[in-house]
Amino acid sequence: MTGTTGLPMAVPAPGLPARVRIHEVGARDGLQNESAVVPTEVKAEFIHRLAAAGLTTIEATSFVHPKWVPQLADAEQLFPRLSDIAGVDLPVLVPNARGLARATELGVGRVAVFGSATESFAKANLNRTVDESLAMFDPVVAQAREHGMHVRGYLSMCFGDPWEGPVPVAQVVRVAKALMDLGCDELSLGDTIGVATPGHVTALLAALGEAGVATEAIGVHFHDTYGQALANTYAALQCGVSTVDASAGGLGGCPFAKSATGNLATEDLVWMLRGLGIETGVDLDRLVVTSNWMADRLGRPSPSRTVRALTHKG
Amino acid sequence: MTGTTGLPMAVPAPGLPARVRIHEVGARDGLQNESAVVPTEVKAEFIHRLAAAGLTTIEATSFVHPKWVPQLADAEQLFPRLSDIAGVDLPVLVPNARGLARATELGVGRVAVFGSATESFAKANLNRTVDESLAMFDPVVAQAREHGMHVRGYLSMCFGDPWEGPVPVAQVVRVAKALMDLGCDELSLGDTIGVATPGHVTALLAALGEAGVATEAIGVHFHDTYGQALANTYAALQCGVSTVDASAGGLGGCPFAKSATGNLATEDLVWMLRGLGIETGVDLDRLVVTSNWMADRLGRPSPSRTVRALTHKG
Which residues form a coiled coil (chains A, B) (predicted)? Predict the structure, then answer.
C-alpha cells in the first residue's frame, strides 16, 4: 500500500482508553438494511472472515419474525454454521420471548434486546409504548440471565427522532436506567438517524454517569448520515467509553440510496484508533479485503472512505 | 426538510471557541482538483452564491502559471467579476513574485503562499528544497505586507507525506515558525493526504503553542481521505483553533476517483458546529442548494454526507 507505510502515525491523546472493543454489526445491522437478501453461506463466510480479521465481538443475526426482517430470516440456519469460530462473541438480537427461546435452543451465549428512547419509534418499531416495550423485555432479560447469557440493551433514537426531533437527555437517561435495572449487562446508545454531534454525546454520557450507569457498561452506536460518526466517537472515547459499534465497510448505510442510514465503517474507526495508539486487535488490511469481498457480493463499492483509500492505493 | 426540524440539537461542549471562521476553499482548492475546467462565469456565480450563503472568507483563485493549473488559468478574468461582493474576504494564492504582481494589479487584498513541511513535496510541487521555497516566499510576503495585504501561509503535508510517510512534529514546527517569521499573518496546517488523527492534531498544535505560534494565527485544513477530517477538526477546536478550511459540497475530493483527495465538506463542518452551538454565520440550507447547483454543473453528486442527507430529505 504505497504511501501509507507507517501511517497513520500513532500519537496517543490524553485520557483515552488503552483498548477499544469493537462491536461489529455489519452482519446484522448492516445486512438487515441492505436491499439484497444475502445467501446464508455468504453470511457465514463473511462472519468467518471478520473473525479472521481479528474482530472479537460479531453480532451474527436476529431471531426476529421473518416477516419483519426477511434479510435475516435464516437465523436458525446461519448460527450453527458459526460453531467452529473460537474465542469470538457472537451475540444475536432477540426481540421477545419467542426469539429468546429460538436462540436458547441453538446455544446462543449473548443476546440483545432492542429498545427505543422515544415513544414514536417504540410505536413504529415495536407497536408499543416505551414502558410497554420495557415490560416486554423484562421476562426476556430475566430468562436470558437465568440461562447465563450476557445481555445487551440497544437504545435507539438517543439523540434525535424523525418524528419528534431532538430527544431530551433526561428522557434517554430514564430508559437507559430502566434497561440496566432490568438486568442488562451493557447498553448500546444508538444515534439511529445520525444527528448527534460531539457536545450532545458528551452531555448524554455525563448525565448517564451522574445517574449511576457505569461507563464500562456503555457502548456507542453512531451513524454517519451527516458525516459526524467519527467525531462523535472521539468525544465518547474522551468520556471513557471503550465499546464502539461499527459495520465492516459501512454496510447498511449506502450513501447513494435515499434510505441511507450510514453505519460508521469499521475501517474508518480502526484507522482513527490506530492513529490514537489504541489497541483493537483488528488487522486493517485483512478487514479491507473482507469488506471489498462483501461489496462484490452486493454489487456495489463500500462507502467507507478508508476502504476506498486503501483499495485505490493497493 | 422532514425529520431535521430543530436538528442537530445545539449542545455546546466545554472549552470550545464561540465562533468559527470558515475559510471556504471550494472555488480554489476544490475546482483546482476537479478534472473538469469550469467556465469563468460559473465560477463567478459560485462565489456569489457562497457569499450569499453567509461565508465570509472565500478563497477565489490562484495566480499560478496557467501551465501548472489550467483549471484556474482565468484568474485575471474571474477576480474583477467579484468586485460587487461586499463584506467578504476573497484571498487568492500567489506562488511567487510574478503571481503577486498580477494580484496587486487587480487590487487583491489577501494573498496566500503555499509551502511544504516536507522536502519531497517541496521538490515535487515547487521544484525547490524547503529552505529554497522559504527564500522564494520571503520577498513575496514582504511586498504583500508593504501593499497592506493580509498574508496566509499554507503548509502542506503536516501529518504525513506520500513519499516520506509520517512527518515529525518538530519538522512541521520549524517550517511553520519560519513562515510566521517571514511575516505571515496566519497559517493553514494542511493534512494533504488525509492521514492525520486527533491525537496527532493535538500534539502538533501543542508543539506550535510551545514554539510561540499564537493559536489565533492557526487554521486547520483537513482532508477526508480516510474519513478523519471532522474528528480532527473537533480535536483542533478543543485546542482553541477557530479557523477551519472546508470546501463547499466537498469539492475537489471525489470519493469515486483514484486521485481522491477528499476535502472536508463545508456542510459537514457546519452541521457539527451548529450542533456544538458555535456560530459560523452560514445558512446551511442555502449552502446545500449551492453545492447541488455546482454538482449539477460538474455532472456528479456532491460527496458530502450532509448535502446528500439534506437533499434526500428535501
Answer: none
> Omega into A39 within 30° of 0, i.e. cis?
no
Residue B4 within a domain: no
With respect to residue A12, please indicate whether it lies within any of the assigned structural domains: no
ipTM of the complex: 0.95
By Cβ distance, the residue of A16, A196, A225 closest to B309 is: A225
Say whether residue B127 is in contact with chain A using an 8 A CB cutoff.
Answer: no
Number of separate domains in chain A: 1
Cα→Cα distances B162→A201, A271, B120, B290, Å = 35, 17, 9, 33
Residue pair B110/B90 in contact by the 8 Å Cβ criterion: yes
Q: Show pLDDT as tens, one digit a residue, over chain B (314 residues).
A: 444 678 999 999 999 999 999 999 999 999 998 888 899 999 999 999 999 999 999 999 999 988 888 999 999 999 999 999 999 999 999 999 999 999 999 999 999 999 999 999 999 999 999 999 999 999 999 999 999 999 999 999 999 999 999 999 999 999 999 999 999 999 999 999 999 999 999 999 999 999 999 999 999 999 999 999 999 999 999 999 999 999 999 998 654 444 445 899 999 999 999 999 999 999 999 999 999 999 999 998 898 999 999 997 64
Per the structure, the complete domain to which residue B241 belongs is given by 21-245
Give the minimum alpha-carbon distance from A163 to chain B in angstroms, rounded to a whole number: 6
By CB atoms closer than 10 A (0-12, 13-18, 19+), residue A171 is middle
Chain B closest CA to A103's CA: distance in Å?
35
Q: Which of A7, A16, A227 sits opposite B195 (nearest CB)?
A: A7
B314 touches chain A (CB under 8 A): no
What CATH number has the domain bearing residue A46? Answer: 3.20.20.70
C-alpha cell at B47: 462565489
Classify residue B204: in a domain, yes or no: yes
